[in-house]
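Worked example 2:
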Amino acid sequence: MRDAAPKADGGAPYKLGHLVDDAWRPYSHPPVFDIHRTANGQSRLMATAPGSDPLVFLKLAECLTPPFILLYILHTPRSETEPGRYQSEEISGAELRAFVETFATFLSSDARFDLWVYSPEDRATIVWDRHDLVYGYGPVEALENGLRGLGFSRGEPQLPVPHEHHYHPGCDEAARSLLASRDWSWSPLMPEDEQ
């Protein structure tokens, strides 16, 4: 993992890279998902976010019942603020969509965070992590249907080995704007949040 600037050749910044012919390149997962049993016997959906596309996270969140609580886990800050868990107040489906659309470029370009959305009514959670993997805990059948509507098929999501995460200086202002966009409630990172 390294702190990387946008590519010198003018290419767009990306959050996840892999080695191709001794050079680091952007990595994009294929559109696949699988369903697993958790330790407590519940079903968990695991999917990819090809091209770091926030639409996958948003589509799965829209399978849940609003209002939502958003959790922005800042595990690798650069200069914007201290690491921690930043939790929103309850927000509507329209507010969630507006948040994701407003910050889509940042969310798809930088790996300093994980993003969670929780539906208290469904007691269900969607998690988009720094590896462009998206986890769904809750109505697995509805989540599967949502992914199939995006062209996903059954398969095993896998990470490239080796891989790298990017934390771009050019994304610092967007990260500050995201944190200023809501009245977040802060709590410290949990051990599983840390890199």
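Helices lie at 54-61, 93-102, 104-107, 140-149, 172-180. The longest strand covers residues 84-91.
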